[in-house]
Design goal:
The protein is α/β, with parallel strands linked by helices and 504 residues long. It folds into four domains: 38 residues; 175 residues, 2-Layer Sandwich (Nucleotidyltransferase, domain 5), CATH 3.30.420; 62 residues, no CATH class; 78 residues, no CATH class. Helices cover 42% and strands 17% of the residues.
């Protein structure tokens, strides 16, 4: 078949230059009949016809070759015969054709098989309580009036299809751990296996086959709840197809139209109620006569009993800054000022931050998911006021110091005195020792008596000397002189004053 370039040359030589068939054939090294046929047909465009290739060279050996390829497909991949090996086997059986014909057939056959297999999936079946599947999705909601992207954890029981969705600001390890706790509490137990993709928060290294090196904290959680983590083959999402499908189900039913809530706590309350209602309304995909929630009730008795709550956190070492802060994820959290410069442990939970020094908790804060925020506990800085009293008015932590009404009332009264700040600081310093409630009660008593300076005296009364101690402190030689004359002088003085008053 002539290519279009050659046909174009023939037509130009004949119609433009006026050359004959024989001359054109000689110049282009073609036969005269070929030139004549190209001109008579008047072909100006190429037409392609798709035909099924017939392996006429292989002849009767096609069936033999196909049978060998099907046999190889049933065994392990590493034992499959190459096209060269198959060619040699056919040659030993009398095949006289070329290796290229065999190679082309093998390539085409395997390519067709791969296309067919990529579109086919093996249906999975699980026993009650055998496994759950876990995955993440990203959703968009309106949170406190602001369009916000959140991460949603999906945990689904494979047998009953009962599932829970939990929303978080991100999908870090502490969120993964907390999502499992919330799900097991919701289900009333856990399964014997958990099926995951190869998420970096849980898996440190992907090894050969199904082998994985999991994060130690993640394994601790698995050990606590007695289930085995199983990772999918990379790029094989169908191995956890239930939860993959659930992502679309949840997005269509729970986040469309745009979900509007004031906080993540409200979002999670809504999701929990919605998941339960969905299970009560939806028919089970296999047990058509039953609802998902009914099948879950059957599966529940096969779940591993829910164990005690496990504190799921990530530990980060930090050094307390001169401003008495520890840093985590760009945010600063205050600790007691006595630990400045010390090496501490920051325990990162899904919703809180705890700081420990040698197994002692020295700070606890609600976790912030903003950027470059400072989270204060004003009481961490109160001991500094003894040396830096001026910080009471201008110190950033003390502008957020919320005090009971009685203490605020004493502060207002003391502000009338020149040393009022110093006196109030002495009252604040009593809180770590006596507690806020005791200081509040002392302030109430002081206000009722109209004397605010009584607070520290009420909290620290003069020590009572026990009887045995008073006996021990008696004088060995008591004074012999009488003191009656002092009383006489006092009485005579008072009588003189009374007489003068009457005289006036």
């Amino acid at each position: 078949m002539l290519i279009m370039e050659t046909i174009g040359k023939i037509r130009r030589l004949y119609y433009v230059e006026g050359k004959g068939y024989k001359t054109i054939a000689r110049e282009l090294r073609l036969s005269k009949n070929t030139v004549k046929k190209a001109l008579q047909q008047g072909v100006t465009k190429t037409q392609y016809q798709c035909t099924h290739k017939k392996y006429r060279v292989l002849g009767s050996y096609v069936d033999r070759l196909r049978k060998r390829l099907e046999e190889d497909l049933q065994g392990p991949k590493r034992r499959r015969r190459t096209a060269k090996k198959l060619y040699l086997e056919l040659q030993a059986e009398g095949y006289e054709g070329s290796y290229d014909a065999v190679h082309e057939f093998v390539v085409q056959w395997r390519r067709q098989q791969n296309r067919s297999l990529s579109r086919a999936f093996v249906p999975l079946e699980f026993e009650a309580g055998e496994a759950f599947q876990f995955d993440w999705s990203e959703e968009e909601i309106e949170l406190a009036g602001v369009i916000t992207r959140i991460k949603v954890a999906h945990i689904r029981l494979c047998y009953s299809r009962y599932f829970l969705m939990v929303a978080y600001p991100n999908e870090r390890l502490e969120m993964v751990l907390d999502a499992h706790e919330q799900a097991f509490l919701f289900f009333g137990g856990s399964c014997r296996k958990g099926i995951y993709d190869n998420m970096k928060t849980a898996i440190k290294t992907v090894l050969w086959g199904k082998e994985r090196e999991f994060n130690e904290r993640f394994l601790q959680m698995c050990s606590h709840h007695l289930f085995e983590p199983v990772a999918c083959t990379p790029a094989a999402g169908w191995e956890k197809g239930q939860v993959e499908n659930q992502v679309n189900t949840g997005r269509c039913n729970f986040f469309t139209p745009l979900l509007k809530k004031e906080s993540l706590e409200e979002v999670n309350t809504y999701l929990e109620a919605s998941c339960k209602k969905w299970a009560e309304d939806m028919s089970h995909p296999e047990q058509k006569t039953k609802r998902v929630f009914e099948v879950y009730q059957e599966e529940k008795i096969n779940l591993l009993p829910y164990r005690a709550y496990l504190d799921n956190y990530k530990v980060v070492p930090e050094i307390v800054s001169p401003y008495s802060f520890v840093l985590y994820d760009t945010n600063s959290y205050s600790v007691e000022v006595s630990y400045v410069g010390q090496s501490v442990q920051v325990l990162v939970f899904a919703k809180k931050i705890i700081v420990k020094f040698q197994d002692k908790i020295i700070a606890s804060h609600e976790r912030s998911f903003g950027r470059y925020q400072r989270i204060y506990d004003p009481w961490h800085y109160v001991p500094l006021l003894e040396r830096k009293p001026g910080a009471l008015r201008n110190g950033a932590p003390f502008k957020r110091l919320a005090l009971p009404l009685a203490i605020e009332g004493v502060r207002k009264k003391l502000s009338e005195y020149s040393d009022g700040d110093q006196q109030f600081i002495r009252i604040l310093l009593q809180v770590p020792q006596h507690g806020l409630q005791a200081v509040e009660e002392a302030c109430n008593v002081a206000l009722s008596q109209g004397c605010c300076t009584l607070v520290t005296s009420l909290l620290n009364p003069s020590p009572h000397v026990p009887p045995e101690e008073s006996e021990r402190l008696k004088l060995s030689s008591p004074p012999t002189d009488s003191c009656h004359h002092y009383n006489e002088m006092y009485l005579s003085k008072n009588s003189f004053s009374v007489e003068m008053t009457y005289a006036i």
